[in-house]
Amino acid sequence: MIGIPSKSFSPGMAQAGTSGLTIDSLVAQHYAFIWRVLRGLGLSRADAEDATQQVFMIAARKLDSIDPDRARSFVYGAALRVANNARRGLRRRREVLSDETSEEPEPESRSPEKMAELVQARRLLAEVLDQLPEKLRRVIVLAEIEQLEVPEVAALEGIPVGTAASRLRVAREKFRALLAGMHHQNPFAGEP
Q1: What would the pLDDT profile of 79-131 be if each residue is shown by its tens digit?
Q2: Confidence (pTM)
Q3: Are 47 and 12 in contact (CB under 8 A)?
Q4: Residue range(s) defining the domain that contains residue 156
Q5: CB of 132 within 8 A of CB of 168?
Q6: Which residue, among 82, 84, 78, 77, has the nearest Cα to 156 in the 3D structure?
């Protein structure tokens, strides 16, 4: 499981917009989802934290215009735009994204070897996802990491269900092909 930072976003605005939504309820319901999506889109932990806060600052400014039934779609769309801007800024500065060696505290039940394998697997996952085209990366993150059903993926992406299913199929094929080409880096390659 990916370690999720605490919800440090605190705009001090518990008032509800005309839609009845509060920023506090949006943060409570969608913070972890948005942070994981941003990580899946290639942002480092620190950049994902900053970007997640930016998403909810945008939501706070537009609270009155957010349809409560489409709140998740709204914050997801905002997250995509913020992630694109963040990645563009990183490319301009030519920074190399690097993860910390561990994203979660080491449980006593895990050996150092298992923890090293997990860190290596996370790096490999990030590298493979980074090689996928943006549209395919988004659907595979939503379906495989977030465990959303294809109709939910389609709704968030604003595409027909058939298109979402097709993109997911192609994304899985490309993911498998990329992973097969990197089998020497995969600590779990020999496992069933």
Answers
A1: 999 998 887 776 665 444 444 444 444 455 567 877 887 788 888 888 899 99
A2: 0.72
A3: no
A4: 112-185
A5: no
A6: 77
